[in-house]
Amino acid sequence: xxxxxxxxxxxxxxxxxxxxxxxxxxxxxxxxxxxxxxxxxxxxxxxxxxxxxxxxxxxxxxxxxxxxxxxxxxxxxxxxxxxxxxxxxxxxxxxxxxxxxxxxxxxxxxxxxxxxxxxxxxxxxxxxxxxxxxxxxxxxxxxxxxxxxxxxxxxxxxxxxxxxxxxxxxxxxxxxxxxxxxxxxxxxxxxxxxxxxxxxxxxxxxxxxxxxxxxxxxxxxxxxxxxxxxxxxxxxxxxxxxxxxxxxxxxxxxxxxxxxxxxxxxxxxxxxxxxxxxxxxxxxxxxxxxxxxxxxxxxxxxxxxxxxxxxxxxxxxxxxxxxxxxxxxxxxxxxxxxxxxxxxxxxxxxxxxxxxxxxxxxxxx
Length: 365
Prior knowledge:
This protein is α+β, with helices and mostly antiparallel strands.
């Protein structure tokens, strides 16, 4: 069948991927999907004799190149298999191609991708969504263990936790720029983390979802952002759409890296909506801009994204007509769960669920 979605499940060490894969298979098989899961290729390579900690750079290079080649080959073979299925299929990769780049220098990664005949933009575009599960080493240290993966190099001590946190952030940086990158927090209740995984995949598969309000606050920034925060520029334009739907274009820039996304939100019931996102090219983006809603301004903002004590935050600083407004939005914090507010942010007012502060309404002229 056509329109087969390919999803990456990634994250730092001890993030819950193994459990999540089991839940994904059970849940979506029960909904009538054929679920294919591609195993973690670096683990296969390690079991077969690869040593990713080797000091032999020539051996390391050939091993990492082989890892990427095997990753792509497995994905391509499973895609061909899925295309022969009579029912809807989804492919879930236990890590994806860009994960490999987090373990080497940018120069070596550029050499390897050239040798394989691909590039970073091409590798990101292979996947419909990337779900990053935050490592238990960041905010849920009491659950960090090496018992479920004998191949894990990050040991269960303070140094191991530090390495695990660092790898967690390197993997997020590797995937930054993918239009459907979602970071899945740690939770006091592990089931909440698993529920968020299933919800995000359901969204990718265009299954209607309950309307869930992410926590949102007006804040003052009282200190510098974390050194590892990811800064980006967002330009958001709302289009003239149907009365019961919200349609927008988004230009998202990380330095020289630019992604264009067309999003439609449509209510299917009082407390349920269907969100459709698709990446588009610059030409189509520019062709659609003249369809902008004349009653709404374009929104321009700078975003800082980061993990703080196991929770994922986005801080948006607005420009132009909304100059001076700074909004903090949390991602996937469960109801009743405490907010790990960073010390460099001061809450002015919570505006969760307040329609005046939806971007759609902030854009009104």
